[in-house]
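B., you asked whether I could sanity-check this one before it goes into the benchmark set. Here's the sequence:
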Amino acid sequence: MPWKLASFGTLLAAVVLTGCSTAESAKDPVATETGHSRCESAAAQFAIGKKASPELLEQARTRSGAQNARILKPNDMVTLEYRSDRLNLNTDANLVITRVNCG
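And here's what the prediction gave me:
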């Protein structure tokens, strides 16, 4: 008899935990729908050839629809993860923008 009770208790715990994990996964699609917008680098191409500045960075970020933006100098260390909501303004040694891309 105690084995049957222990088995029932284990089964009950498994059912409860499964219900909890299902409830969390049901919330995931909502978070995806309100997630970040994609960056469109073509809208920020106007910045090429201009001197990098915080004002230009914000203007390019806004036009591209990116959530985040950064200025990358030639020897800057960067992370390698791809983020579709981030705008990169790549510069030369004189801080003149040479390339605009998302990622």
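One thing to flag: Residues 2-33 form the longest helix (32 residues). Otherwise nothing jumped out at me.
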